[in-house]
Amino acid sequence: MDFSNLNHLQLDALKEAGSIGAGNAATALSTLLRQRIKMNVPRASVLSLATVGELLGGPETSVWAIYLKMAGELEGHVIFILPNAIGTVLVDLLMRRPTGSTKIIDEVGESALAEMGNILTSNYLTALGTLTKLDLRPSPPLTANDMVAAVLDGVIADISVNTDAVLTLETELIIGDTEGLIGYLFLFLEPASAPNLLGALGLAG
Amino acid sequence: MAELRVSVDPQEVFCVPGLGSCVGIVLYDPVATVAGMAHIMLPSSQQGILGDRPAKFADTAIFALLGSIVSAGAQRDRIVAKATGGSQMFRSQGEFLTIGTRNVDAMYRTLERAKIPIIAADLGGTWGRTARFFMNDWRLQIRASGRPDLDL
User: Fold this and answer.
1) Which domain holds residue B37?
2) Which of A17, B96, B136, B149 has the most CB atoms around its CB within 10 Å?
3) CA A155/CA B99 separation, integer angstroms
4) Do B1 and A153 touch (CB under 8 A)?
């Protein structure tokens, strides 16, 4: 389906679904990090290929990305993105080290981040699956550390085969009380799965 | 993403930031001082819907670019190509993650069909790149995090 034709009711329902998923993910993250997690109201945006590069403060921003492919009754991609500087703080929290201990993220740190991303994203999908009563199957998590546009372009290409409009549900997770510790959780939905998701939310076509 | 630009200004600099699996390709005629750059996302228009962005697919991008620079004064037999990108950002066996490789293959096939020689390329790998093309010296500069700059 063409995302540029979604109405407000449908976008609101998608936001609500994103919100329930992210709420569950935030709770899991909070337990894992022993930090308070705040989250903003999710954004459901339909991006054009021309503007998608402007996500997260410009295409060349260095980030950690933890990626899962979503398969089953909904297809798409779930990605948790952390600006580089935040990655090191999170590794400290995950390893129960004093803040500032981690300067460079080594293999152990990377797998800690991957595991955290895995827990976060699978909790997101579990909540989404429960809400929609759809069978969702996440792939194992994969990580990358690079420019944000570079880590996202394959995902965006994958869902743009038949459309130039990309639907994304984005939630910011604000970690602890420190200013600027924000992770970004994205769900990129395969256009062919949109009718399924909207149908499950009671808002078909 | 999926942009296509053409210029006849010798001071022009094309920039494509943050290429992952996408391919940045430039075609130019140095004698006529005409160049164009496209940001390719996917291998083949046979597998998808084109819409109004020919640069999205390798096959349509290269022919659209060729048409545009010829209209801008490039001479067919002087046109050459340089390209970068086509990475695999997440290491895995999955099919989706091979988009970079498939983009590169499709680019080579299309260039061959169009009979355009590719004179320099930095493709593949597992890292992102920012590409800049300078029309004053026809240099394709490639920046990647944690790597020295590359001039092709």
Assistant:
1) 4-151
2) A17
3) 9
4) yes
